[in-house]
Structure formats: structure tokens, C-alpha cells
Amino acid sequence: MQHIDDATRTELEAAAFRRLLKHLDEHKEVQNIDLMNLAGFCRNCFSKWLAAAADERGVELSYDAAREYVYGMPYEEWKVKYQTPASADKLEALAARHSHGEEKSS
């Protein structure tokens, strides 16, 4: 992508980010703990990254507002509708991931 100007690159990155959010929205069965265990990040991480990017640019965007954008609804509503209890295996895998020195991505 070195041959692409900065403005176009930013547009492409933004489009890819929006497509990723759409994909996650279409796959609500994929829980945050699944994402954390497999990739080390989740929807909440995206929300934190978005809020941090806004802050770095002097744009007001709260974590809750960023999270509502990422989830497509208020987080509490998403949890009630779509979040399922994490199994003991998933919780153990997450704990093992963090105990091996891997930092949380958010």
C-alpha cells in the first residue's frame, strides 16, 4: 500500500474497520471471550481504541459512546440480548493466556 496516498489509505482503513464491525455484528454468537482467547482483543478493545484515537485528536468521544458505536446499541442492552455465560474452559483459557505474560490488547 506504499503507492497509495495517505487520504486514500485512511479511507480504505476506515472502510475495512466498518466492515469488520459489520462482520462482528452479523456474528453475535462470537463472544468477546472467544475473541480474547483467539486473538487477544474483543469488541471492548475496539471501543477503547476508538475512544483513545478520538482523545489523541482532541475529539470528544466517551468510552460508552464508542462502545455503543462498536456494539450497534448500548452495551448493557447487547449483554442482555447476546452475551452468554462463559464456560469454565473459556475462563481457564483466558486466565492461562494472561498468566503466560501476554498483555491484554486494550
UniProtKB/TrEMBL annotation:
InterPro entries: SMc04008-like_domain, SMc04008-like_sf
Domain SMc04008-like: 30-95
Coiled-coil residue spans: none
Name of the protein in question: DUF1244 domain-containing protein
Protein's organism: Pistricoccus aurantiacus
Phylogenetic lineage: Bacteria, Pseudomonadati, Pseudomonadota, Gammaproteobacteria, Oceanospirillales
